[in-house]
Amino acid sequence: MDNLKILTRFFKAIEDDFRIGTTHIAIFAALLQFRASKDYINPVLAYSIEIQSIAKVMSPKTYHRCMRDLDNYGYLVYVPTKNKNKRSSIYFHLE
Q1: Domain residue limits at 42
Q2: Which of 11, 13, 46, 58 is least surrounded by Cβ atoms within 10 Å, i.e. has the fewest?
Q3: What is the pLDDT of residues 50-65, one digit of tens each?
Q4: Sign of CA dihedral 61, 67, 72, 78
Q5: Residue 87 is part of a domain; what is its CATH number?
Q6: Are 20 and 74 in contact (CB under 8 A)?
């Protein structure tokens, strides 16, 4: 599934979801941009700083909170790593 379909489905899903804010949207869009730069792989393997830079999110705490939220709310699957030398995995629901 291409990024436009994923983004369209995301916006449709969040229409009535009061839990989602602008930072969640910025991070989700940044993840899609990052995914496009990596030939549309799934899962996306990324360091938080790579996504924060694209999304213009300066605080690592805010980034991690939003990523956990997006995972908990079912918009993606986030598998963080505690190892600073290893990228976290982010899975998009492609069906």
Answers
A1: 3-91
A2: 58
A3: 999 999 999 999 999 9
A4: negative
A5: 1.10.10
A6: no
